[in-house]
Specification:
mainly alpha; Tyrosyl-Transfer RNA Synthetase; two-stranded parallel sheet; 15 helices; elongated; 7% strand; Rossmann fold; 5 strands; 3-stranded parallel β-sheet
Length: 338
């Protein structure tokens, strides 16, 4: 039986961190078992906020791809590609933009939120307003049936579904409406207790060395109610213990929780322990990543082959789109000859 297609993208803004892994990529790896997966590096999307200085986008794209493969995305089982290497994304984006109402874009929750947060960037551009249309093109061009998303991304996918419906209503059934795959996603705290995010500078990256991880763990925010070493701790609200829940085996979790509540382990010792757990967890990924980055030509070859495979599927869609919109000149000429 033909497997269903799912698609997702990784924005080319730098190295993957633990929040990215547990929030999305771990699920993408698991989806490879039951779906035909298309995973791309969203280098054009990075331009929506970094258009003023795009000099790091190529390097960041390769970093993201290396991280994804090191984390378990398999070029033999999935199509891994570069968004900009499949020009059909841009063509479909252009066609969608012709009939997408401005009101749909202005109501996307993250639009106004990011304008408020990213005050150091000029975001009053069409590219930033219209990036959900490009996102819809990214998804719909592969006629996929599922998109792995978190609850906070549901509004973006709903816009893609609305654009598919609007296209089909004008030009005939062409696109299936993609469904959200609300796969389990762990929330990972950052070093400071806020959500782990590059913009906050509070991340532990897949590529971090053991020494870097130990140094970062020393700065971790801990239980605010535990002032002195002999004060009893509260693991259920402690930032450190959230990492144990993600990374430590049950016996270590149980021991740390018990000793924390009895003030038998201090925060300094616990930071050292969680650093060891993170280092052990990331070591296989870090080694694989180093191999991939040693010769970036080989890494780029993987992405180019994936882009070739993605282009085949995308061009099939664009032929159908041009036919539906009466924009296929070859078909008109064939009709004239007959």
């Amino acid at each position: 039986m033909e497997r269903k297609i799912v698609l997702s993208g990784m924005r080319a803004t730098g190295r993957m961190h633990l929040g990215n892994y547990f929030g999305a990529v771990r699920n993408w790896v698991e989806l490879q078992e039951q779906y035909d997966c298309y995973y791309f590096v969203a280098d054009w999307h990075a331009l929506t906020t970094d258009y003023g200085d795009p000099s790091e986008i190529v390097a960041n794209s390769l970093e993201v791809a290396a991280d994804g493969i090191a984390a378990g995305l398999d070029p033999e089982r999935s199509v891994l590609f570069l968004q900009s290497a499949v020009p059909a994304h841009a063509e479909l984006h252009l066609l969608f933009s012709m009939f997408t109402p401005l009101g749909w874009l202005e109501r996307v929750p993250t639009y106004k939120d990011q304008i408020k947060q990213l005050t150091n960037k000029e975001l009053a551009t069409y590219g930033f307003l219209g990036y959900p249309v490009l996102q819809a093109a990214d998804i719909l061009i592969y006629r996929g049936e599922g998109v792995p998303v978190g609850e906070d991304q549901a509004s973006h996918l709903e816009l893609s579904r609305e654009i598919a419906r609007r296209f089909n209503s004008y030009y005939g059934d062409t696109f299936p409406e993609p469904k959200a795959l609300f796969t389990p996603a762990a929330k990972v705290p950052g070093l400071d207790g806020r959500k782990m995010s590059k913009s906050y500078g509070n991340t532990i990256d897949i590529a971090d060395s053991p020494d870097t991880i130990r140094a970062k763990c020393k700065s971790m925010f801990t239980d605010p109610q535990r002032i002195r070493r002999d004060d009893p701790g509260h693991p259920e609200t402690c930032n450190l213990f959230q990492f144990h829940r993600l990374l430590s085996p049950p016996e270590i979790q149980e021991r740390v929780a018990r000793e924390c509540r009895l003030a038998q382990i201090g925060c300094v010792d616990d930071k050292a322990l969680i650093a060891d757990q993170i280092i052990a967890f990331l070591e296989p990924m870090r080694k694989k990543r180093e191999e991939l980055m040693r010769d970036r030509g080989d890494l780029l070859a993987i992405l180019r082959e994936g882009s070739r495979r993605a282009s085949e599927r995308a061009e099939e869609t664009m032929e159908a789109v041009r036919d539906a919109m009466s924009l296929n000149y070859d078909r008109i000429l064939e009709a004239d000859r007959s």
